[in-house]
Specification:
heterodimer; A: alpha+beta; 5-stranded mixed beta sheet; 12 helices; 17 strands; B: alpha+beta; Alpha-Beta Plaits; rod-shaped
Chain lengths: 470, 173
């Protein structure tokens, strides 16, 4: 089973940075706080950062709200490349001193009350944040996500308030010695304020008056920024009666948020975790919160599972294919040995060679058998001759196409008798030599006439013909 | 692109190149094994065929061996042929048999031999038949038989191709 490295969450402000390691169930396993001077290039952050931090994955850093800036633009395009190009151009124009701002921003597309499409862009605007990030990156503990309390509250409020994305929302977070005011427009963080509360003993009137003043100031600022008023004001306080008292002073309703109970609180060590007071450890581990990620790192993290899956599948395939290659090699060697053994046991010659020789032998025998036999030709000729035909010369030439030439004399009393004898002879020849395809005919015969001096009444017919033997 | 991202892509590419390479190599091996297997099966069938038809093959070889005269030298072979032809001519009543060979054809597979003989038609026919049956390595290339019916005398002039193979070990027969 693959053991995942533990995760660390850090909380930073302008003075210090605190690291928290949480157990799987959300309890704090380790914690450490370091002054932020150590994070300067000449600081001793390397030595000061505990080993458990360096061995863990730095999931999140929570920085003060004012380290983030935000802008709202009317924007019609929805194409990602156009939006990012627009934001990066705007950032380079509006924040020329922040050279790396193009890598530290996030955006969301929202619709205002008139259903116009707006581009909400949030970015890292505090130079100290860039320095801190670079320092952490040099220690190989770059945080994967950068967030603020306002953004974490945005996520929490979004889950609890109906119509959070459509209304103007104000949120008062009253703690023991501080009060935080958060304002959201169209579901996106607009601005926040931190109010240090005076020590007043048991009488909260002074605090309420201070809050009344600050909240009204903030309403005014909200109207300036969003061109709208705050629709609903929510409050989270230890004492539920505070909401009612403050409501009377403000002259408007305040909705009391349910007090987070049975939650694992972050440690309350003086000012260390003041900004994150009332957050549970699980709130910080929520990966769905709006945040900013360093673009190259975000890309790397996004592609990491794909790459690891590619490597794992590839390695598995390599192993399987290597095993297959080994099996095939073994199989090939087995067959080769068997072939060799068979050849050795069979005979000195390869069967192919034997068949080749046998084929040649049969061809030669066929050729020899196909050649006309001289004795056979002679016997057939003699058998085909009628008694009145006397052989004079027989020539057989088998050098190319076998050809038989015959010269003979025929004793006949008159031409009609000669014709009858010749017909009989030719018929016999055609039968004996199987000349059905191209039978010998009278026109193929050269005929001569020889008369003897002492008896010119009995002529001798000389015949000569030649034909190819098939 | 960060260095780690690049390295990982490089590793992924390397592994998959290896996968593709191994796949190709294995396909090549599979083809080789298939070829060897087919050859082996063919060889087994061939050997079975050769074993089952050994007698027929031997007969074919014997028949083929009769088409060539195995002799130690061409001259010696010619002497044997001349002797055999003359013996047959005496036995079958052929007269004045003369046998000549073409000395220019030394070293070739076939040596032309020309014979001239005289005799009756049955004697000539019997002699030709006997020669073809007894000596298949003598193949008639041309035959001229002139016959005088009145005298019942024939003159045979024939040219044979004498097929011979030179061998050091085979005795002349």
């Amino acid at each position: 089973m693959i053991r995942r490295s533990p995760t660390v969450i850090s909380i930073a402000d302008e003075k210090q940075i605190a690291f928290l390691m949480m157990s799987r169930d959300g309890y704090i396993a380790h914690q450490a706080a370091l002054p932020l001077e150590d994070a300067q290039p000449d600081g001793r952050l390397i030595e000061a950062v505990p080993k458990w931090v360096r061995q863990a994955t730095h999931q999140l850093i929570v920085v003060p709200d004012y380290w983030f800036g935000n802008h709202l633009y009317e924007f019609h395009a929805r194409k990602r490349s156009i939006i990012t190009a627009f934001i990066e151009r705007k950032l380079s124009l509006e924040q020329p001193s922040l050279t790396d701002a193009a890598n530290f921003y996030d955006y969301a597309m929202v619709r205002d009350q008139d259903r116009r499409q707006m581009l909400y862009c949030t970015y890292l605007q505090e130079p100290l944040a860039y320095a801190l990030y670079r320092r952490l990156a040099s220690l190989a503990i770059s945080p994967h996500r950068i967030s603020t309390p306002a953004l974490i509250w945005q996520s929490t409020l979004g889950r609890h308030i109906d119509g959070f994305a459509e209304r103007g929302i104000g949120f008062v977070h009253l703690t023991q010695g501080d009060c935080f005011l958060y304002f959201y427009h169209m579901g996106q963080f607009l601005f926040s304020r931190h109010i240090q509360l005076p020590e007043t003993g048991d009488d909260p009137t002074e605090i309420h008056n201070l809050l009344n003043y600050e909240i009204n100031q903030s309403f005014y600022l909200y109207s300036q920024k969003s061109k709208q008023s705050v629709d609903t004001l929510y409050m989270l306080a230890q004492d539920p009666a505070t909401a009612g008292q403050l409501s009377e002073l403000l002259g408007r309703d305040i909705v009391q948020m349910p007090c987070p109970s049975q939650r694992v609180e972050l440690p309350d060590e003086g000012e260390t975790f003041a900004v994150c007071r009332d957050f549970s450890a699980l709130d910080l581990k929520n990966h769905d919160d709006p945040c900013i990620s360093y673009k190259p790192l975000h890309k790397e993290i996004t592609w990491r599972p794909v790459q690891w899956a590619g490597m794992a599948v590839g390695v598995c395939l390599v192993v399987l294919l290597a095993v297959e290659a080994g099996f095939l090699r073994q199989r090939q060697m087995d067959f080769q040995h068997r072939q060799f053994a068979m050849l050795q046991s069979a005979s000195a010659k390869n069967p192919d060679q034997i068949f080749h020789e046998l084929n040649q032998t049969i061809n030669r025998i066929s050729n020899e058998l196909g050649r006309p036999s001289a004795s056979d030709v002679m016997m057939r000729t003699l058998l085909a001759m009628p008694t009145t035909v006397a052989l004079q010369k027989i020539t057989l030439d088998t050098s190319d196409a076998a050809r038989l030439t015959i010269d003979a004399s025929v004793n006949a009393a008159h031409p009609a008798a000669f014709k009858a004898i010749l017909d009989d002879f030719l018929t016999q020849m055609n039968q004996r030599f199987n000349l059905a395809d191209r039978p010998l005919q009278e026109k193929d015969i050269r005929i001569g006439l020889e008369r003897k001096a002492h008896n010119d009444r009995k002529p001798i017919y000389q015949i000569h013909f030649s034909f190819e033997l098939s | 692109m960060s260095r780690r991202l690049k390295y990982r892509w490089f590793a992924v590419s390397l592994i998959w190149v290896l996968v593709l390479g191994l796949s190709g190599w294995n396909m090549h091996r599979i083809n080789q094994v298939q070829t060897i297997r087919r050859n082996l099966e063919t060889m087994q069938m061939d050997l079975r065929f050769l074993k089952a038809n050994q007698t027929t093959i031997q007969q074919i070889r014997r028949q083929e061996s009769r088409l060539t005269h195995v002799v130690a030298s061409a001259d010696l072979g010619f002497l044997v042929v001349e002797n055999n032809l003359k013996r047959l001519s005496w036995e079958l009543g052929l007269e004045k048999l003369s046998v000549k060979n073409n000395t220019n054809a030394q070293g070739a597979d076939a040596m032309p031999i020309t014979i001239i003989a005289h005799g009756t038609l049955p004697a000539v026919a019997g002699w030709i038949t006997a020669v073809e049956e007894a000596y298949p390595y003598l193949v008639v290339k041309r035959m001229d038989l002139t016959y005088e019916p009145a005298k019942q005398a024939g003159r045979l002039q024939a040219t044979f191709d004498y097929h011979l193979t030179l061998s050091d070990n085979n005795p002349v027969s």
